Amino acid sequence: MKVLVTGASGNTGRPLVRLLTEAGATVRAASRRTGFDWSDPATHDAALDGVERMYLVAPVGVAEPEPLVRPFLERAREAGVRRVVLLSSSAVATGDPGLGRVDNSVRQTMPEFAVLRPSWFVQNFTGDHPAAESIRTRGEIVTATGEGRVT
């Protein structure tokens, strides 16, 4: 089994590459460091060659990533990719702007898919993340949960 991991140098991609490799999967790591570029279709075929499954992290810092991701998904399907696991967010519903539209494209394009909707990562409490800044400056965790609770 060959798995493409997009965002392979990121917070979720890096450990996933390690875990998949340890489990015996053949992994292709795709990131800017490996020459993969969402906005350059010339880099897509090499990333997809022989791939059956994909972990998809949409391009970071792009407000509307769907116009970049959808053609890539269509090419992936044509290349034989059957299953896509999309990293999304618990704060984003299918069809919402941004990742919600990517979610919708995955559902419409791929024969098999899963959408991960995490609510927090430990990294959110360190560095420059808004949650970390809120803890440091206000002593509180501010979330998009309104009056709801995240447990």
Report on this model:
InterPro entries: Ergot_Alk_Oxidoreductase, NAD(P)-bd_dom_sf. This is NmrA-like protein. With 151 residues, the protein is an alpha/beta fold. The protein has two domains: 2-118, Rossmann fold; 121-151, no CATH class. 32% of the residues lie in helices and 16% in strands. The protein contains five helices and five strands. The chain has helices at 13-22, 44-48, 66-79, 99-109, 130-138; strands spanning 2-6, 26-30, 53-56, 83-87, 112-116. It has a five-stranded parallel sheet with strand order 2-1-3-4-5, sandwiched between helices. Helix 3 links the parallel strand 3 and strand 4 (83-87). Helix 3 (66-79) runs parallel beside helix 4. It is globular. It starts with a strand and ends in a 13-residue tail after the last helix. The mean pLDDT is 90.
Short summary of the structure?
With 151 residues, this protein is of the alpha/beta class. 32% of the residues lie in helices and 16% in strands. Strands 2-1-3-4-5 form a five-stranded parallel beta sheet, with helices on both faces.
Based on DSSP secondary structure assignment, what is the total number of beta strands?
A: 5
- Which architecture of the largest domain does the CATH hierarchy give at level 2? 3-Layer(aba) Sandwich
Strand arrangement, major sheet: 2-1-3-4-5
Question: Helical content, roughly?
Answer: 25-40%
Q: How many structurally independent domains?
A: 2
Look at the structure and give the mean pLDDT: 90
Strand percentage lies at 15-25%
The shape is: globular
InterPro entries: Ergot_Alk_Oxidoreductase, NAD(P)-bd_dom_sf
Protein name: NmrA-like protein
